[in-house]
Specification:
Layout (H helix, E strand, L loop, with lengths): L23 E5 L7 H12 L4 E5 L13 E3 L3 E4 L15 H19 L5 E5 L1 H6 L5 H10 L5 E5 L5 H6 L2 E4 L5
Parallel strand pairs: 1-6, 1-7, 2-4, 2-5, 5-6
Antiparallel strand pairs: 3-4
Length: 177
């Protein structure tokens, strides 16, 4: 379960006794699937006044990119890369599409270091790694260097063993509705 206490950026640098340590949660499924549980937790944390960031690495559309976040309420911000289409396994990825995902990845890391978020959702991060848009090493480095009070949720099929090994919780959806 995601910790549901609001911790300010100034408290994030205090000893653990002054804040709750963040957790890494993995939500996986044999197929690409929308995780209602993940969204419910994200909405709950945002409704309690804590900053939430949802990052969808493979979804494009009209007016996407780091300049055009979707703001749901005061505390939930949703980013997608500046893509004209949604990316998937087996797709040919253009250099421009890879650059758009890389830009989003860099933006995510900068935003996390600002300390304004309590929860970050990395949607379909395993597929982004399979497509060569992100590396397993850089995702691991991000998780290890994140602010200590930040919760991170990873979603996607076929999650690498190295990410499963550091997860505090793993949820596998086996039955598709």
């Amino acid at each position: 379960m995601v910790a549901q206490l609001s911790v300010s950026a100034s408290e994030a640098s205090l000893p653990l006794a002054y804040g709750i340590e963040g957790v890494v949660q993995v939500f996986t499924c044999p197929q690409r699937h929308f995780f209602t549980t993940v969204m419910a937790q994200a909405l709950r944390v945002a409704a309690q006044g804590s900053g939430v960031m949802i990052v969808q690495f493979l979804k494009g559309g009209i007016q996407t990119g780091v300049e055009h976040p979707i703001q749901l309420g005061q505390h939930l911000t949703w980013w997608r890369p500046a893509l004209q289409r949604c990316l998937g396994q087996g797709d040919s990825i253009t250099p421009q599409e890879k650059a758009a995902v890389r830009e989003l990845w860099q933006h995510l890391q900068a935003k996390v270091q600002e300390g304004q978020h309590r929860l970050v959702v990395l949607d379909e991060v395993s597929v982004a790694m399979q497509l060569g848009l992100l590396t397993e090493g850089e995702v691991l480095d991000f998780l290890k260097s994140r602010p200590r009070t930040l919760d991170v949720m990873l979603t996607g099929p076929e999650m690498p063993e190295s990410l499963l090994a550091i997860a505090d919780q793993i949820t596998q959806l086996r039955r598709l509705i």
